[in-house]
Give the backbone structure.
Amino acid sequence: MHWAKKLDAGMQKLNQVLIFISCIFLGILVIACILMVLTRFIPNFTLTGLEEIARYSFIYVTFLSLGAGVGSNAHPGLTFLRDALPKGPKKALDLFVYLAILVFGIIFIVYGYEAAMGVSNMISTSWRIPMQYIYFASVVGGFFTSINVINNMIQLILFNDDKRSNEIEEVQLVEAQMAEKAAKAEQQEKGGEV
C-alpha cells in the first residue's frame, strides 16, 4: 500500500476518535443545558458551575469537530462555481481553498498558544479549572485541522482524490434512489385507488 493511502487511513481513524470525543462533549453540553433549564423551576436550588461546564464543552466540541470535519471535507462551501469548472482549474481551486484553511489552522495554533500562555495564572470561577486548558482547545483544533488539510492536499495531488466530490455523488445517488422509491409508492397508491 502506498504511504499516502496509509496516511489517509490513519487520519480517518483519528477523525473517528475526534468525532467520538466530540460526541462525549456534546452529551455533556446537552445534559448541562437540560439541568440548567430544569433547576430554574426549583425554588432556592441552583447547581453551580453548569454554565461553565456547558461553555467549555461547547468550546471543545467546536474545535475538535472542526478538525474532523475538515478531514472529511464536511466544512460548508459554495460549490456551484467549482462544479462548473473543468478538472484542472477545479483542482487548483481546491488546493487554494486547502491552503486558506491551512493558514487558519496555523493561526489557531499560534494565537491560541499565545492566548493560553497569557491566561496561565487564571482559573475558572466555579470548577477551579486552569483557563490554560480551555484556551488550548484552539491549539488542538488548529493542529487537527492542519494535519487533516495536509492529508487532503496529499490525496488530491497524488491520487486526484477529492473527497467532497465523492460525498456529493453519494448524496445525489441516495436522493435519486429515495425519489425513485417515492414515485413507485405513489404509482402503487394510484393503481390501488382505481
User: Anything to note?
Assistant: The radius of gyration is 23 Å. The chain has two domains: 3-161, 166-194. The chain has six helices and no strands. The mean pLDDT is 87.
